[in-house]
Amino acid sequence: FGRPWIFIRGVPSMKFLPPEGPLEIAFAGRSNVGKSSLINGLVGQKGLARTSNTPGRTQELNYFVPDGFSGDPGDLPPMALVDMPGYGYAQAPKEHVDAWTKLVFDYLRGRSTLKRVYVLIDSRHGIKKNDDDVLNLLDKAAVSYQIILTKTDKIKEPAVPRLISETLEKIKKRPAAFPEVLATSSEKGVGMEELRDAIRVAIST
Ligand code: GTP
Ligand code: MG
Questions:
Q1: Against a cut of 0.90, is the pTM above it?
Q2: Angle formed by the axes of helices 94-110 and 129-141, to 10°?
Q3: Binding pocket residue ranges, ligand 1, CB within 6 Å
Q4: Which of 56, 86, 164, 165 has the most CB atoms around its CB within 10 Å?
């Protein structure tokens, strides 16, 4: 995570995906859960992924890679971070929301270089029906995923360990779920080092 990360491509539909190469780490979750903010916190670059108060900010699959690789076949970055549009309610025309939701689902199901999905859950709301739909899809496609609780600065500190164990209880029978839940606050920089470690392990195994 040392070098600066750069945005390389926004993907509006499956046919614009880059050729499969570097391992991909993707961030999924309901609109406004904090996916783009988490990527910025993770790489330590505030303005890298665009964030907004308005749900529906990210509308394409946005690819970020460490800078300094030529992109030639022999000089590819070891991994890419993929910011995704959210699912669920968004402030955008319904056709757009339907199209990007389909894109997210198709990508999650069918990308062989997708190494790990981080599924973000808002600490105040917990796992909702549409989150469960995504977890079902990932289990069925056997894509490894890990749950991240976001915005823990918005709940009382003593509630965090309880929320972690409740969430673990809910996912324990899920075959593709990584049996550890990360609690984060991008706002306060909480949990970023743990997440970096988890990603390092994911791409090296
Ligand atoms: P979409 O792209 O619309 O799906 O949203 P997103 O999941 O990428 O969320 P984004 O990162 O744009 O953040 C949504 C809002 O939540 C912004 O106003 C952020 O500032 C805020 N936010 C994100 N992370 C945190 C956090 O850890 N704590 C607090 N308090 N606010 C946060
Ligand atoms: Mg976003």
A1: yes
A2: 30
A3: 29, 31-37, 51-53, 55-58, 85-86, 150-151, 153-154, 185-187
A4: 86
